[in-house]
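Technical annex, item 7. During the second reporting period the consortium partners agreed on a shared format for inverse folding records so that results from different sites could be compared directly. Each record opens with the tokenized structure and is followed by the designed sequence. A conforming record, contributed by the partner at site C, is shown below for reference.
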């Protein structure tokens, strides 16, 4: 078992208390609302994609620290990425979240490694994944 303190590492607390990239876009090219009924977490994600690159990304949300910190850390990684690169990042994160045995965090995830402890709590994995599945839907347009 992972200790509670490992679940709420300093960086997660920091991101949940002062989320980066918070706000709304007036004319987003992509937008999606994500909801995690197990915990009550909500994310509204706004994207501006131009020339196949994510030019701007903002979100508004409410819910637990894990869901909001995950959204905040995700948005930090997105700016400037192509939609194809974003899709790869989503896949990498999902695989890592579901593989509890994986000791090493894929390097491409950067600070998101702080969510490592979440993998021991299947219910909290849903919280961590919310922003990512919301992004997936936003980009695929369904
Ligand atoms: Zn949650």
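Designed sequence (site C submission):
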């Amino acid at each position: 078992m992972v200790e509670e303190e490992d679940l709420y590492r300093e960086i997660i607390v920091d991101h949940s208390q002062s989320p980066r990239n918070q706000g709304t876009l007036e004319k987003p090219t992509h937008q999606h609302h994500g909801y995690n009924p197990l915990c009550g977490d909500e994310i509204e994600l706004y994207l501006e994609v131009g020339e196949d690159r994510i030019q701007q990304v903002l979100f508004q949300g409410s819910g637990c620290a894990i869901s909001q910190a995950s959204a905040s850390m995700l948005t930090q990684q997105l700016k400037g990425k192509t939609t194809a690169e974003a899709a790869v990042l989503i896949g990498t994160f999902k695989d890592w979240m579901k593989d509890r045995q994986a000791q090493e965090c894929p390097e491409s995830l950067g600070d998101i490694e702080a969510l490592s402890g979440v993998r021991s709590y299947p219910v909290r994995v849903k919280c961590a994944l919310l922003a990512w599945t919301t992004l997936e839907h936003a980009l695929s347009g369904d």
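The CA atoms of residues 52 and 84 lie 8 Å apart. Residues 36, 39, 41, 63-64, 66-67, 127 surround zinc ion (CB under 6 Å). All partners now use this format for quarterly exchanges.
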